[in-house]
Fold DNA binding protein.
Amino acid sequence: MSNFFAPRTTPRSQPDNKSALATKEPKDAADLAVGRWWFDCNIPFNATRTKNFQSMADAISAVGLRYKMPSYHDLHGKILGKIADFMEHYKSCWSLTGCSITADGWTDEKQRTLINFLVYCPKGVMFL
């Protein structure tokens, strides 16, 4: 059956009855909640252009109302560990294709220096 029906989380898939009958207000409320979180965290707008942004929203949508966002400890622990394992895939191509390293530094209000390192390669970007 899966060959005949696209998953509901793919682009341009057929909406379910609930989303098809939804009014504009719930979408506006969801957009506002995302916007409040986005601005509160000072996330750059171009983060929406990453390949993982829509897939994150689709995965949350697929779980539905019962989905609860991961806690600080979940993100800092088991999820970060899984992501670190995935990032090894990116590192494996560095010796084959090469990479570019970009550094961005700044000083906070207490005169503490922070340097961000980004590694660019054909497979993607990695924050170190």
Observations:
- Residues 71-128 form one domain.
- The chain has two domains: 1-69, 71-128.
